[in-house]
């Protein structure tokens, strides 16, 4: 019908006003760039939301510049950004909206942020998160920050997901999490008044699919960077540590005392994790095989990905199953609570003695150091909040 009207309009002008000036433009009043003075519709009409797939928006998304902390740039390779999912301003904004929107869940009540809360450094304060049906998982939600520097790109406690895009796929369809199907989730987005236009701006198409959804979420998650703790500022010469904090750092680095740095890194690793998988002596008999359940290799049983030590004040409870409620309990585990098993990591050198057997003062000093890894500016960053 629209084409017929334009044809008739042009025919009248061609017959009666051959010498009239023909100014091209968009003659559709429903378009963003409608031009009431246009004499000819030349097909340039741009729409905010065209569910028919006929949007003519050909503008390229704006490249997003990742703000890399000074110590990260000094000690680490460049962050990993997939070639097929570069960061863009529009993609990050879309991913943030999706992260906080419960539209992806089966009943429209739960978002990614329900279990990855900014106040808790993007983890859950509950031992086990509850899904939309009130069912609990069996593992504590891992914090989400500095993930663009996980170069092995194995995510979750057991490493079952490849890349952040893969990590975002599973929770939507997991029956004890968001309990949806991807066709239903995509349909909800496709029928939404805003999302088709936002996907068009980010990816050049308003035809939504699951891969575009997880690409957008992954873009936002790669911008979640924590690199401004007291210890960071100490390393940059901007702030001093107390004698207790310095002593705690020395215990952390001492192979005969805390011996923490092998898995959690030294000052040359500002991530404070090796992102590798270890059996850290939690149990002698396993109820959760961790990495072993993914690889099928019994040598990987009870190995879990090393969490970062950043923001410990915000990320309780601790360990893959959230069994420890406090930092003190974690320190006590390594001091006196190690349990031998066939796959225990060789780095747990003092398992025969139950642990490294720290004194009360050493425990207090080690805790004081660990608290210098808190990044208050990260959990309060308005750019990361809805």
Written description of the protein model:
With 386 residues, the chain is mainly alpha-helical. The chain folds into three domains: 2-41, no CATH class; 70-225, Cytochrome c-like domain (Cytochrome Bc1 Complex, Chain D, domain 2, Orthogonal Bundle), CATH 1.10.760; 230-379, Cytochrome c-like domain (Cytochrome Bc1 Complex, Chain D, domain 2), CATH 1.10.760. Helices cover 33% and strands 3% of the residues. It has helices at 2-16, 70-75, 89-100, 163-173, 182-190, 195-203, 210-222, 230-235, 243-253, 261-264, 291-295, 327-336, 360-371, 376-379, and strands spanning 24-25, 40-41, 154-155, 161-162, 277-278, 304-305. The protein has a two-stranded parallel sheet. Strands 3-4 form a two-stranded antiparallel sheet. Helix 3 runs antiparallel to helix 6.
Q: Strand content of the residues, in percent?
A: under 5%
**Counting H and I runs of at least 4 residues, what is the number of helices?**
14
Q: Count the strands?
A: 6
Q: Per CATH, what is the topology of the largest domain?
A: Cytochrome Bc1 Complex, Chain D, domain 2
Provide the low-confidence segments as ranges: 1-23, 47-56
Task: Using the alpha-carbon principal axes, give the shape.
Answer: globular
Within CATH, the superfamily of the largest domain carries the name Cytochrome c-like domain
Radius of gyration: 27 Å
How far apart lie the N and C ends?
A: 42 Å
Mean pLDDT: 89
Number of domains: 3
| Backbone structural class | mainly alpha
Topology as H/E string? HEEHHEEHHHHHHHEHEHHH
Known CATH architecture of the largest domain: Orthogonal Bundle
Helix content: 25-40%
CATH class of the largest domain: Mainly Alpha
* Biggest sheet overview: 2 strands, parallel
Spatial strand sequence of the major β-sheet: 1-2
């Amino acid at each position: 019908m629209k084409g017929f009207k334009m044809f008739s309009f042009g025919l009248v002008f061609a017959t009666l006003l051959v010498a009239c000036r023909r100014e091209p433009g968009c003659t559709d009043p429903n378009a963003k760039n409608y031009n009431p003075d246009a004499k000819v519709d030349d097909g340039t009409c741009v729409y905010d939301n065209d569910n028919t797939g006929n949007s003519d928006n050909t503008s390229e998304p704006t490249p997003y510049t990742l703000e890399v902390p000074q110590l990260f740039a000094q000690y680490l390779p460049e962050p990993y950004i997939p070639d097929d999912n570069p960061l863009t301003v529009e993609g990050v904004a879309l991913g943030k909206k999706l992260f906080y929107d419960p539209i992806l869940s089966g009943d429209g009540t739960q978002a990614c942020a329900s279990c990855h809360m900014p106040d808790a450094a993007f983890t859950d304060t509950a031992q086990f998160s509850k899904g939309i049906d009130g069912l609990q998982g069996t593992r504590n939600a891992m914090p989400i920050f500095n993930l663009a520097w996980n170069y092995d790109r194995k995510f979750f406690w057991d490493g079952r997901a490849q890349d952040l895009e893969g990590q975002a796929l599973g929770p939507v369809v997991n029956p004890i999490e968001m309990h949806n199907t991807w066709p239903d989730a995509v349909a909800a987005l496709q029928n939404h008044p805003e999302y088709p236009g936002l996907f068009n701006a980010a990816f050049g198409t308003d035809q939504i699919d699951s891969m575009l959804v997880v690409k957008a979420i992954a873009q936002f998650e790669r911008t979640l960077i924590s690199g401004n703790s007291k210890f960071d500022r100490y390393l940059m010469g901007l702030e001093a540590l107390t004698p207790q904090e310095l002593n705690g750092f020395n215990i952390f680095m001492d192979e005969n005392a805390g011996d923490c740095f092998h898995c959690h890194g030294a000052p040359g690793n500002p991530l404070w994790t090796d992102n590798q998988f270890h059996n850290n002596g939690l149990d002698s008999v396993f109820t959760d095989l961790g990495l072993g359940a993914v690889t099928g290799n019994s040598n990987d049983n009870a190995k879990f990905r090393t969490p970062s030590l950043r923001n410990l004040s915000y990320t309780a409870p601790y360990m893959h199953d959230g069994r420890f409620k406090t930092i003190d309990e974690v320190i006590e585990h390594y001091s006196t609570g190690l349990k031998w098993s066939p796959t225990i990591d060789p780095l747990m050198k003092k398992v025969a003695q139950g642990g490294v057997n720290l004194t009360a003062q050493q425990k207090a000093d080690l805790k004081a150091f660990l608290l210098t890894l808190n990044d208050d500016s990260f959990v309060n960053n308005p750019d990361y909040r809805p």
